[in-house]
Structures are given as C-alpha cells and as structure tokens.
Amino acid sequence: MEIQTIPQLFLRSVESLPDHPAYYDKIDGQWQEITFGQAGEIVATLAAGLSAINIAKDDKVAILATNNSKWNLSDYAIAGIGAATVTVYPTLIASQIKYILENSDSQAIFVENQEQFDKVDEIRYQLPKLKSIIQMDQKQMDGDDLYGFDEFLEKGRQYQQDEGFDFKKISEKVHPDDLLTLIYTSGTTGDPKGVMLSHRNLVSNVTNGRKAILIGPEDSMLSFLPLSHSFERMVGHFSAFSANSTVYFAEDLDSVAANMVEVHPTVVVAVPRFFEKVHGRVLEKVSNDPALRQKIFNWALSVGRDSAKYLTRGKKPTGFLAAKFALADKLVFSKLKERVGGKLRFFVSGGAPLSKEIGEFFASANIPILEGYGLTETSPVITVNRVELFKFGTVGSTIEGVEARIADDGEILCRGDNVMQGYYKNPEATAKAIDAEGWFHTGDIGHFDDENYLIITDRKKNLLVTSGGKNIAPSQLENALLLSRYIEQCIAIGDRRKFVSALIVPSQENLTSWAEEQGLPVDDYPALLQQTTVMELLEGEVERAMGPFARYEKVKKIALLPDLWTISGGEITPSLKVKRRVVEDKYSDQIEAIYS
Q1: Structural domain includes residue 469
Q2: Which of 38, 158, 298, 407 pairs with 23 at a CA distance of 20 to 30 A?
Q3: Cβ neighbour number for residue 35 with a 10 Å cutoff
Q4: Which of 42, 45, 40 is nearest to 13 (CA)?
C-alpha cells in the first residue's frame, strides 16, 4: 500500500519492527528506551485522550517543548485523529506564544515543564479557544482542564475502554490533503505567518527525500535541532521513524558533544553554526599543540584534500595516495571521528548556507556533510547532496517529485507535492508566494551548475547594491568571516553605500584569552574592544577572510559590538537567522560612524 498520510507512515513502522528501539531519552543519567511497539501503544492512548477532551478532526493542538520523545508521540497522536499540530519554539516569550495560539485557533497545548507552563498560564485567560493544557513532565495537575502526562494517558485508556476508541480505524479517516501542521515562520520582519502543510506535503517529502539519502533500521540519530522547525521535523522525526531508525534526544544544546560520544550516531542533522564551532575548536586545539603535531595535522589535511576528490564522488583514493590517506586517518582523522561518536556515516546540513571551506575540511577527514536546501513552505527539502556525489558550494540536486527552475531575475522557483497549501488566514501573502502555475517563489537567488546541482547566491532581499551599481551577496562574505575563531556573529553592510563594511560581534571567550596572553586588561570587555591592538587583530582577520573576493566585494571597515545577538533581544529568529533590519536599526549610529 502506498503511504499517503502520516498515520499510515506511523502504523507501518510500528507494525514492521515492534521490538526495535525507536527513541531514547536520557532521564536521571540513564538512556531510557521506547520501542516502536510501545510508541504505537502510547500514541493510540494519547489520541484517545485528545478525543476525550473533544479534540476532533481539523482542530488545532499546539506543542511547546524542547526535543524529547513525548514531542514526537504527541505529534503522531494529533495527526492520527485528523487534527493539526501547531509547533511553537520553546525559546519564545509569552506574548509571541499568545500570537501563535490565537492566530492558529489552538484548543489544547502540550507543554514540556513548569517554565513553559508558566508562559501559557500567563496568557491563557486571554485565549478563549484554548481549553486544555497537558504538562509533559508532570504525572498529575491540579485544576480544570490541566493534565499531567500520566494523568492524560489514563484519561485516554478510560476513553478507549468506555467508547471503544480504535486508533487505526480513526486514522483511516485522515485524507492526504487534510491539514497536518501549522508551522509559523520566524520571519525577519512583521508577525510570523502560519505555513499550512498537509499530509501529502510531508509524506511526499519524506518518501522522496529517503530515495536521495538512504537510511534504515541500522541507523541511529541524535536529535537536537528544534522539532518546531520543519528541517528537524521532516528528517529527524518523520523520516527517521519511517525508516525504523533509532532517535536519541540530546539532553540540551550544551550536552550535544558529550551525547554524541555516548550514543555513537550514524546520521546527525545540524546547521552550519554547529560545524563552524567544531571546526573552530579543532583549530584552537591544534594551535596549542607542539610544532611537530601541527606539522602532522597540516600534512594530513593536505592528504585529505587530495583524497576528497575521490571521496566526494563515492570512490576511494588509490595507490600511494590511499596509503597516505590511511596513515593520515590513523594519526589525525580518527581522533576527529571519535569526537562525533566514531560511527558517523554523514551529517545533513540545512537552514543556512554552509561555508565551502567547512565542507572541504570535514570531507578531508572522510566525514561527509550533505548540504540541502528548502524552506518551511516546501516541507522543506527541495534539493540535497548525495553520498555518492556531494559538491562543496552547492546544495545538491532536486529530489524526486520536486521541480525547480530559475526565473528571469535569478530567483529560485519550486513546484511539486511538497509545496504548502498556503499561509493560514492570509490569502494575500499566499497569492504573492505561489503563482497561477503553482510555482512557489522562494525569495532566494541561485543557478544550476553543469551537473544540475544548485548554487545559492543569497536571499533576494539581502543582496547589496553599492552606490557604484555592484551587486554583492552578503552571506558569502559573512560565511568567510565566521571561519575566524575571533568572530562569533556578523553582518555585512553596504546597500547604496560606497563600500562594504561589517558589524562584528567577537567571540568573547577567544578574544579575552588572546588579550590575556598579550597582557591587556580584560575586566572591562566593552573597553577591551576599544583597544587599538584588538581592532588591529580583527582587521587582520577580516583582511585574510576577504582574500578570495573581488576588490569591490571586500569588507573595508568594521565596527565591534560587545553584546551577542539573541532571540530574546530580538536580533535573531528562533531558527537563528539574523534579523538584518533589526540589527541595522539598533546599531545605526555605529553604521553611520563607519561611513562618516
């Protein structure tokens, strides 16, 4: 039977390998297992609980939690009765949560813990449609329409017994074009828009995505990107379950490195910043090694770069190069592989452009990073690199069932079963995004190479046009700058200006460590950034990073900022994209000082 809905996908995996481990959560220091069969029982009971509190087909139920098995199980339960999941980033504040719950007409919400409950409790009396709250880390709750997770399961068991609730029969009523989820895009301007994705949208993306990247029951993943984002939801949630792969949930972001060593994942989904930090830590360690070790490391990288010409096309180096690569692997690369668990087959990267240099670095160690591309509105995958052919600086070729073409102005257009139904309650925005022929306008600029691999230049609205009429893609400049161990965040400035400049948030830890070695006072960090030697250090880093670029593209001047850009500060979105307009407005004085 062809899988057309998420409940069908779920039940097939439950029935095919009921005793195989589906999920692991680390609780009280121990990894606790849930098998596919146990997942089936829990989801059926949760679905009965939702029915018991009068959640029905087409109703909306929100989830506000960090990654854990209860997130996934709740999602499957909601889908199984034909309701729609509303995903809410756990980093949002109460007022932002209120907008999403109100706009989506959510009638119930699963919250992770007391911290998330308190946010919802602060606003729930302003939300007349929101009736029930289920708290995942509580067994029982006091109050009308408040439930602990165990208590809610018991309510579901009672409903199963009293009403003869049959999850499988109920789920058969779900249609491929029914709304599966509302995901609110964390737009860099204005209120977020609710992207309507159907069962057909996600199932097509899972099915065709798995044809491009093969995973199976022998694979295990470490999940740490937010499940409220479409990327992790599709790859690390739906795709992993459909392949009967095992998912471990990282304890938190600070524990990812340690958890990776513990659980030995074979596949990990991450964003470019993760790889940049691993790369930075490796170079930091090497810089403190004795000269001989540094020489061996640099030799191994050189061998790895030569070998990558074969490795990136699914081949192995031959002859003398094979012998050198084996030695480089033993002396250097094996240690890097141990840091990512020792069994990793490949990383999958998305969410933002991956630096070509970072991709080359990992490939040299025979750790493939398969970069892909897509948007929430496209479920999300449009293109992805393959294990048998991955090319740095590209986001791969289109997956089956997806069409992509380049418009006359360079914009990437997409069409297929993966394209959203539209924006919730926003027909005007929907009409702007999807044209009469069904092409979704991504807002990204790019082109295809001679092997039909897509190269993305930048966001259409982010392109800088200097006063001299030169078009410049800021993301390429920023990716080059972020390779520096002294730069944590940055944006390039230059639209309608005579030259390009950059706002830079230095890495306080690395910069302070360097300053101490130079004998500079570090107690007053903002004052440290005003030191001439510090500015010279950062200017030198910028000059090196700008080496490959044309003269008109290069960052000429910089301003150093002491404070990290954060979600709570409003400078970045929950998916960690910089809100350029917000940053430019907030630091307008510093920008004007650069150009004065």
Answers
A1: yes
A2: 158
A3: 17
A4: 40
66-125 per-position pLDDT tens digit: 999 999 999 999 999 999 999 999 999 999 999 999 999 999 999 999 999 999 999 999
List phi, psi (to 5°) of 299. -65, -45
Half-sphere exposure (CA, 13 Å, Cβ side) for 276? 21
Among residues 486, 492, 491, 565, the alpha carbon closest in space to that of 529 is found at: 486
Pairing mode, strands 60-64 and 106-111: parallel
Q: What b/e sequence results for 163-181 when a residue is b if at least 16 CB atoms lie within 10 Å of its CB, and e otherwise?
A: eebebeebbeebebebbbb
CATH number for position 488: 3.30.300.30
What residues make up the domain containing 125?
Answer: 6-174
Tell me which amino acid residue 91 is.
Answer: T
Q: Is the Cβ–Cβ distance between 591 and 473 less than 8 Å?
A: no
State how far the Cα of 322 lies from the Cα of 326, in Å rounded to an integer: 6
User: Is 110 a domain residue?
Assistant: yes
- Residue for token digits 């950059």? 502
235 membership: H or E segment, kind and range:
none
Q: What is the dihedral of CA 243, 246, 248, 249, to 10 degrees?
A: 40
The model's pLDDT over 283-305, given as tens digits with 9 standing for 90+, comes to: 888 988 999 999 999 999 999 99
The pair of three-digit structure tokens given for residue 203, joined into one six-digit string: 């199932």
